[in-house]
Amino acid sequence: MRFGRGGREVASGRGRRGVVSSGGGRGGTPALEATGLGVRYRHTWALRDCSLSVPAGRVAALVGPNGAGKTTLMHAAVGLLRPARGSVRAAGEVAFVAQDKPLYEGFTVAEMLTFGRRMNHRVDHRWGGRMNGRWDGSAAAARLARLGIPLERKVSALSGGQQAQVAVTLALAVRPDLLVLDEPLANLDPLARHDVMRSIMAEVADRELTVLLSSHVVSDLEETCDWLVVLNGGRSQVSGDIEELLDGHLVLTGPDGASAAGAQVVSASRTGRQVSMLVRGACPPDPRWQARRPGLEELVMGYLRSPEAAALPAPTGVDA
Ligand SMILES: Nc1ncnc2c1ncn2[C@@H]1O[C@H](COP(=O)(O)OP(=O)(O)OP(=O)(O)O)[C@@H](O)[C@H]1O
């Protein structure tokens, strides 16, 4: 787990491209912005030419198949990996909860809080040369009390859901502007997933906080997230407001042979003589098409099926 530190830009030594607009209509500085980001592990490019932005105050879902580059993007965003190309910039204090939720099994919850406070100061000292001062231990203890998690309980004696809550609580204790959570719901039962998401939403409602969280279960994100980032094969395919994205796409069904001329087809599938397509923008004129608004899962699946399709914000100064 990495605790908070000042906002920073991590850029490769190579030329940087134009900044990507935040989109979403709320204006202001994005909480997270990647521009032409490329990250590689030795000879393998994990991210290539990846551009996306998350406006401040949003709860952003980061989705994509195994190996898409989600963890790599998060590590680059919090400064654990240096880009080989392009840049990634996070504004304000950033807190990160890694996929394996590195809590110490032998520690009590109270000891984890003490450890978190000390680590926060040490990490901050190492990175910024100053004491953080943002650590809010009493808010963390109050949050754990609200969740019914005893401070004297050993981490090893907590359920998976409670461990996830402790990890999120430690990250929130640095009062971050941006909270980055790598698969916070993995291995949790549906009730625990719901509880963790609800408690994160309560924090977002209480203060100006931006959240980026990755998950493989799109249905978990539907109620709580209002921004979507889709990564596929190391490239960003989608970065935008979920409602605007859903409004801007249609699912078309019609007979094989119906004309899709004029439509921006994201992906298409065929069942017998029926064709089903996800399209961007307006319905093509052929009256044989039946059109409806997609669900979030259909939108995500439509893009994942066509890795070359993209719905990304336009570069600054260019109308979308
Ligand atoms: N330490 C590493 N060394 C070499 N290659 C790596 C390393 N970590 C990740 N990769 C590769 O980078 C790519 C992106 O991996 P990453 O873990 O970021 O994907 P992910 O979307 O988080 O996947 P998952 O959903 O399975 O967690 C993959 O091809 C992976 O094999």
Automatic annotation (TrEMBL):
Positions of the ABC transporter domain: 32-258
Chain spans, region Disordered: 1-27
GO molecular function, one term: ATP binding
Name of one Pfam family that matches: ABC_tran
Keywords attached to this entry: ATP-binding, Nucleotide-binding, Transport
PANTHER family: ABC TRANSPORTER ATP-BINDING PROTEIN ALBC-RELATED (PTHR42939)
Name of the protein described by the UniProt record: ABC transporter ATP-binding protein
